Amino acid sequence: xxxxxxxxxxxxxxxxxVTKTFKNDHAFKSCPHLRKISTSCKRNTVMPAxxxxxxxxxxxxxxxxxxMFPVINYPNExxxxxxxSSINPIDVNMRNxxxxxxxxxxxxxxxxxxxxxxxxxxxxxxxxxxxxECGLSVQxxxxxxxxWAAIPPWKQGTLAEFxxxxxxxxxxxxxxxxxxxxxxxxxxxxxxxxxxxxxCGLNKDNCPGKRVLVIGASGGVGTAAIQLLKAWxxxxxxxxxxxxxxxxxxxxxxxxxxxxxxxxKEQLKSRxxxxxxxxxxxxxxxxxxxxxxxxxxxxxxxxxxxPFLYNNDRLxxxxxxxxxxxxxxxxxxxxxxxxxxxxxxxxxxSGPSLDEIKDxxxxxxxxxxxxxxxxxxxxxxxxxxxxEGHARGKTVIQVSESS
Length: 403
Description:
Elements: H1 4-15, H2 26-29, E1 46-52, E2 61-68, E3 77-87, H3 89-95, H4 100-106, E4 121-122, E5 126-134, E6 146-150, E7 162-166, E8 170-172, H5 179-182, H6 186-199, E9 211-215, H7 220-231, E10 235-240, H8 245-250, E11 255-258, H9 264-269, E12 276-279, H10 284-290, E13 300-303, H11 308-315, H12 317-336, E14 341-344, H13 351-362, E15 370-375, H14 379-388, E16 394-398
Parallel strand pairs: 9-10, 9-12, 10-11, 12-13, 13-14, 15-16
Antiparallel strand pairs: 1-2, 1-4, 3-5, 3-7, 3-16, 5-6, 6-8
Helix pairs in contact: 6-7, 11-12
């Protein structure tokens, strides 16, 4: 029997491309999978959601009980009733306006006002919940399925009662996790996956024996990366502060460096050189870390802190992309001359990747690391906590009482 991931691939290869918008189509109205959806609002055409009407600090967040109910615009989409979500640093940054130039360019015109205005904008990327409706070409999910996903940042987010996602972005939720636990993993796990798998080419077959340094290891992406690497047999050195040392060891890190205990450069000098470095911090850390890779061995440095969106916001799309290309190109060539692969990594929404992460969760190889759970009414407090920094694990939002 084929796995879900294999069946997804076959459907992409043989189904053909369908781009027709069909929310008013007769076939959509007569679809046997449709059923009545009840919302917590008096009218079923609206729902509660946390939105922003402009970019700014925490004061721009507001609970709107009259947010328009999401609709299926394309045949590969599903509507999910959100049981739980979580807050990631990107949510705080997006609230402040980070990436607006690039994200607004990629937003689906069917999902924003005809004027091109992205507001009101719903933040939140993680979701664990229940499928309520399926588009006509969704083959491997049905109403009632418990799923999890990370929604791309150019789409309306998950701090709402319902959200629309592509069938290629969702995966069946691990049965061993509650919705609250499951909501803590998709975005950070897929970001770690993008860096380690997509950018560095690591997998369960080539990871054993690899020495990997994770900088900024105690955050959401760092804790996910450590567990993924250990599940595949890598030797992991984690860089964090003293108060996270026990967490790092509990997650399986082989070696832990407290960057506050002394000069980080001197501490790393006492270790063997690394095959891969994952940098979650950026800034001067990048220059420092690069000297601890094995030269001329195919070693890789990958960072999640890039100037791509910042350049586009500051300079505009054309000039921003040109500046970004020049920056990346110069760094790639500089380090390639030393036999080192320099790479940037970006979050990528992927149901098939979540399928594999799900298997690791159910095998006990990856577990949620949750710092605090907030109620749906306390979303601004969750943002405030995220802004304070130094969280050990994820900040989760319980959207439904049953999560």
